[in-house]
């Protein structure tokens, strides 16, 4: 960890390289720059959102080991921060062992979590966390055999993909071949291997943002938890999120135990280090099931740009630099995705003023250079006194924003916003459930709280033979 922060674009600069410069990477870059850090953004395509704000940018095929090592050697960053899955992770292990840079949360933890097989085996076989039944397969015939063990319905996913790419819900034997072909087409790097997961009939799903950061009172790494984030997905990709998700004390305790144990396993002396972890879980009654973990900011955590004193991006930057973090929740809030709505480059957006007229809303347009109908091009963030009102505001504002073509040959009439199904109401709070008291307008924030480092605690409960899914950055 640096004991000081240098001045950007000078020989003494503190330099960070982000591998992946989508919308999440863009916010991380901005967070670092506010702290005076020089940032280099790398992505596979030009003019990515993060390229537009970084000090320097590179277009590199990050699955090419030689190209990836060359850009790291050329820039010589203090930290390499992976933000996507499609990376030659063996190079990260090499540059770390060669002493060229520090990889966040470390090279081996990054390699492990980039692959669903590695993280599922860690969670189940090493840690004994409750998960859905699962099996791995390398062919359509093996998928068929796996469904005999996990049952129908089940979910078939590439072991390496994001944003729901390649995922299918399989309800019967006649859908296996289609699911296999879809997974192979949607997988990244290891497109020929899949995980077959039993389906959990969950009440809701959450992301528990878990931060490994230096405790200023002890100088040692501590584990901190944000308020749980509820979210709704379609085809494995998030469409809205809200914070805080109401949970019973029993369920919240189980969730923090699961998150603490997975973060500790990734953050021990051999595998992991500092930064934010997005731990995804399913909740059924008071039972919690581990799904996935991302060792970086999570797309559902975009809501923290409006709900927390420090967003997930601010906390990630602080933790990497060895600075204290603050997980204070300032207000209930929600986020809703703005889709591209059409397939072409350089679209524009209408009705932004009308959307921002919805009370307590903010909009982030990501600046992606090319649109697809289901590509995430922006997000609305709304706050309110309760999450139901915040969700309604975010959804209303997102529907008002209209993507339009800027092509001279195209019909420039506004393309209607993609209409999502009405949001399913989250579990209503009742006595014993987590609540948040909103800070009154103009009130001074309470002094930052520094929780004691979390202990891994007892096992999160016996393994339940119940029947899982997920997604990440829509790039």
Report on the structure:
The chain contains twelve helices and 22 strands. The strands form five sheets. Strands 10, 11, 12, 13, 14, 15, 16, 19 and 21 form a nine-stranded antiparallel sheet that branches. A five-stranded parallel sheet has the order 3-2-1-4-5, with helices on both faces. The chain has helices at 23-34, 65-75, 89-97, 107-113, 116-126, 140-150, 176-186, 249-266, 304-307, 312-320, 352-356, 387-400; strands spanning 15-19, 38-43, 56-59, 79-82, 102-103, 134-137, 154-158, 168-170, 194-198, 204-214, 221-225, 229-234, 237-243, 275-284, 287-294, 333-339, 344-345, 348-350, 361-365, 370-371, 376-383, 402-404. It is globular and about 60 Å long. The chain folds into three domains: 15-103, Rossmann fold (3-Layer(aba) Sandwich), CATH 3.40.50.20; 133-198, ATP-grasp fold, A domain (Dna Ligase, domain 1); 204-441 and 448-453, D-amino Acid Aminotransferase, Chain A, domain 1, CATH 3.30.470.20. With 475 residues, the protein is an alpha+beta fold. Helices cover 26% and strands 24% of the residues. α1 packs across α10 and α2 packs across α3 (89-97). The model is unreliable at 411-435 and 440-473 (pLDDT under 50).
What structural category characterises the helix and strand content?
A: alpha+beta
Judging from the principal axes of the Cα atoms, what is the shape? globular
The assigned CATH architecture of the largest domain is 2-Layer Sandwich
Number of strands: 22
Function: Involved in the de novo purine biosynthesis. Catalyzes the transfer of formate to 5-phospho-ribosyl-glycinamide (GAR), producing 5-phospho-ribosyl-N-formylglycinamide (FGAR). Formate is provided by PurU via hydrolysis of 10-formyl-tetrahydrofolate.
GO molecular function, one term: magnesium ion binding
Region (Disordered): 395-475
GO cellular component, one term: cytosol
């Amino acid at each position: 960890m640096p004991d000081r922060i240098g001045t950007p674009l000078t020989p003494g600069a503190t330099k960070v390289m982000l591998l992946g410069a989508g919308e999440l990477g863009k916010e991380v870059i901005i967070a670092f720059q506010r702290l005076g850090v020089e940032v280099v953004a790398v992505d596979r395509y030009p003019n990515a959102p993060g390229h537009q704000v970084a000090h320097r940018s590179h277009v590199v095929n990050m699955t090419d080991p030689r190209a990836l090592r060359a850009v790291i050697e050329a820039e010589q960053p203090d930290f390499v921060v992976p933000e996507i899955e499609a990376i030659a992770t063996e190079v990260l292990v090499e540059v770390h062992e060669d002493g060229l840079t520090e990889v966040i949360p470390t090279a081996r933890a990054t390699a492990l979590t980039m692959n669903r097989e590695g993280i599922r085996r860690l969670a189940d076989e090493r840690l004994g966390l409750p998960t859905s039944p699962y099996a791995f397969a390398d062919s359509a015939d093996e998928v068929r055999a796996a469904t005999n063990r996990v049952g129908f319905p089940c979910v078939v996913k590439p072991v390496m993909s994001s944003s729901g790419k390649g995922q299918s819900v399989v309800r019967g034997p006649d859908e296996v071949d289609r699911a296999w072909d879809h997974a192979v087409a949607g997988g990244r790097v290891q497109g020929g291997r899949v995980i077959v997961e039993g389906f959990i009939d969950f009440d809701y799903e959450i992301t528990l943002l878990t931060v490994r950061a230096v405790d200023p009172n002890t100088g040692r790494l501590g584990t901190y938890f944000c308020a749980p984030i509820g979210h709704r997905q379609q085809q494995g990709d998030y469409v809205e999120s809200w914070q805080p998700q109401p949970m019973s004390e029993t369920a919240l305790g189980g969730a923090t135990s699961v998150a603490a144990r997975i973060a500790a396993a990734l953050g021990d002396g051999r595998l992991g280090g500092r930064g934010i972890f997005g731990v995804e879980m399913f909740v059924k009654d008071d039972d919690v099931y581990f799904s996935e973990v991302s060792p970086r900011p999570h797309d559902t955590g975009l809501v923290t740009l409006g709900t927390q004193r420090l967003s997930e991006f601010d906390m990630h930057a602080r933790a990497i630099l060895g600075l204290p973090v603050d997980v204070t929740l300032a207000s209930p809030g929600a986020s809703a995705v703005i889709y591209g709505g059409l397939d072409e480059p350089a679209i524009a957006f209408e009705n932004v003023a009308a959307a921002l007229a919805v009370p307590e809303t903010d909009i982030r347009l990501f600046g992606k250079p090319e649109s697809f109908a289901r590509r995430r091009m922006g997000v609305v963030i709304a706050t309110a006194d309760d999450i139901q009102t915040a969700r309604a505001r975010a959804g209303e504002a997102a529907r008002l924003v209209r993507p339009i073509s800027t092509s001279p040959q195209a019909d420039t009439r506004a393309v209607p916003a993609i209409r999502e199904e009405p949001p399913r109401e989250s579990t209503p709070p009742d006595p014993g459930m987590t609540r948040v008291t909103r800070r009154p307008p103009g009130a001074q924030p309470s002094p930052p709280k520094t929780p004691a480092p979390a202990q891994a605690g007892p096992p999160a409960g016996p393994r339940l033979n119940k029947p899982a899914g997920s997604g990440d950055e829509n790039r």
